[in-house]
Amino acid sequence: MSHSILDLIGNTPMVESKVLNKNPNVKLFFKLEGNNPGGSVKDRAALNMIKNGLERGDFGKNSKLIEATSGNTGIALAMIAGIFGLDIELVMSEKSTIERVKTMRAYGAKVTLTPAEVGIEGARDYAEAKVKNEGYVMIDQFANNDNWKAHYQSTGPEIWKDTQGKITHFVSAMGTTGTIMGTSTYLKEQSESVSIVGVQPTDNSSIPGIRKWPQEYLPKIFNSKKIDQTIEVSEDDAREMARRLAKEEGILAGMSSGGAAAAALRLAETLESGVIVSIVCDRGDRYLSSDLFE
């Protein structure tokens, strides 16, 4: 029995691709992070960042917290901040889906929408100005080591255990890069031969949750040495694969999960044998008001 909703974060299931993967010598598993209570992989990092920040005294009940987000981290922070009795303002682009905005507000967060044309970078600039001029405290997922350490402590060990140490390739979208940094660190400690594959968008592709950051916005937690290979996917490929995941595998997920799955399947075609684990980072129901599944 769980004593708190927070006890349900992590230990997410993995399911094997039974339709999309056509290589009989390769096993492809999808790790279903949408099964976290806040609906995404970001629950792990949000809990670690808030819990450790409170313990260190970085902020407290009287602090004004703020964070820029493309969506999933914001939902996770809203849920967990509410449980700890913290006030938080979440900043994101006005082109975010209404489900995301309403979910954050349902958890009790203040939501500020920035102009679509300035993107997540503009949301980050807004939050930083609030910290500088109005005494806010930023969680700062892009530079907070508790982000990647959450995956070192949980995601990586779960994958190693559930594949019985047989994983050969780990595939993850790269946004804040916390998931891939932490999981890579753990898996490489178990076996240097595990290949870590990061997924980025092609030029001029817009895939929420997957970024190719300008140098000045590159997450401080990112270390390129922890990635063995990068696969670029187009927005069209990510969209199509999100639809195929739902229709053919019964996995309703967002576009970044579609991008990671597209990369994982492309990788599977090139291998003589192997065990691939691809992160399905969230649930697709928070995209139903968009055109993703149309």
TrEMBL record:
Q: Could you tell me which PROSITE patterns the record lists for this protein?
A: CYS_SYNTHASE
Judging by the UniProt lineage, the source's domain of life is Bacteria
Q: Its catalytic activity?
A: O-acetyl-L-serine + hydrogen sulfide = L-cysteine + acetate
Class in the EC hierarchy, top level: transferase
GO biological process assignments: cysteine biosynthetic process from serine
EC number annotated for this UniProt entry: 2.5.1.47
Required cofactor names: pyridoxal 5'-phosphate
Give the record's family classification: Belongs to the cysteine synthase/cystathionine beta-synthase family.
Q: What is this protein called?
A: Cysteine synthase
Which species is this UniProt entry from? Zobellia galactanivorans (strain DSM 12802 / CCUG 47099 / CIP 106680 / NCIMB 13871 / Dsij)
Phylogenetic classification of the source organism: Bacteria, Pseudomonadati, Bacteroidota, Flavobacteriia, Flavobacteriales
